[in-house]
Design a protein that fits this description.
Blueprint lengths: L3 H26 L5 H77 L3 E10 L7 E4 L12 E3 L4 E8 L4 E5 L6 E6 L5 E6 L5 E4 L12 E4 L11 E9 L8 E6 L8 E7 L1
Antiparallel strand pairs: 1-2, 1-12, 2-5, 3-4, 3-12, 4-5, 6-7, 6-9, 7-8, 8-11, 9-10, 10-11
Helix pairs in contact: 1-2
Amino acid sequence: MFSKKTMIVVCVIILVTANIIVLSVSNKHRSPPSSLGLIALVAISPFQNALTQTINFTKNLWEHYFFLVSAAEENDRLKKEMGDIIQKNNEYQEAALSNDRLRSLLDFRQSSPAESVAAQVISIDPSLWHKTLIINKGKENGIKIGLPVITPEGIVGQIIDAADRYSRILLIIDQNSSVDAVVQKIRARGIIKGESSDQCVFIYVMRRHEIEVGDSVITSGLDGVFPKGLPIGNISNINRRSSGLFQEIKVTPNVDFRKLEEVLVLINK
């Protein structure tokens, strides 16, 4: 009729009830415990102890659960605060670096006799065949096709397209680019042309000129685009053939085009 588990529960309830009654009666009469009371106390005490331990265990488990939940929430909050601090720190560092670059650009602009417009690079041509980039200034700022673009480190390229608010620059490392240049030390003249890499070649330089690796190359001012004396780069490799009129020379530009973020467009050369 009844399962074994049900019988155990009923017995526990009866014993607990009997114990409560006996203890209540004993407290009321405050007389020495009778034999029946002692027997009931002895019989019920183990169950009371087990019940008390179960209640305490459940209570501790519940409190521990809430502690873990609270600790997890606190941990999440601290992680979020740490992330916010790291983000703000990165923003402060980026702002400081940007300010340094802009300050250098402004100082160079003030020292230059030519009128110029500062612009920010907003896009780089992903193509492997063309080396161009787009800036956030255009015709509204006086920019037009053919104007030279520079930085304090050296020349960048020239404007090949101009819209009202945007312009495209052909970099000197593009194969379609050419800049009339001279070796600063010995005044040997040639043409700087772009390669597929981030290098340039210095062509039409006569074999008789004693050029050395590390020599500086600057603009000659004879191409009608770049003013005279602007830095281009340094000679990185020389190949003097046993025959022929010209040397094979490579030049590493001063400008790191992969890190270029701000430029100056010379409005009045």
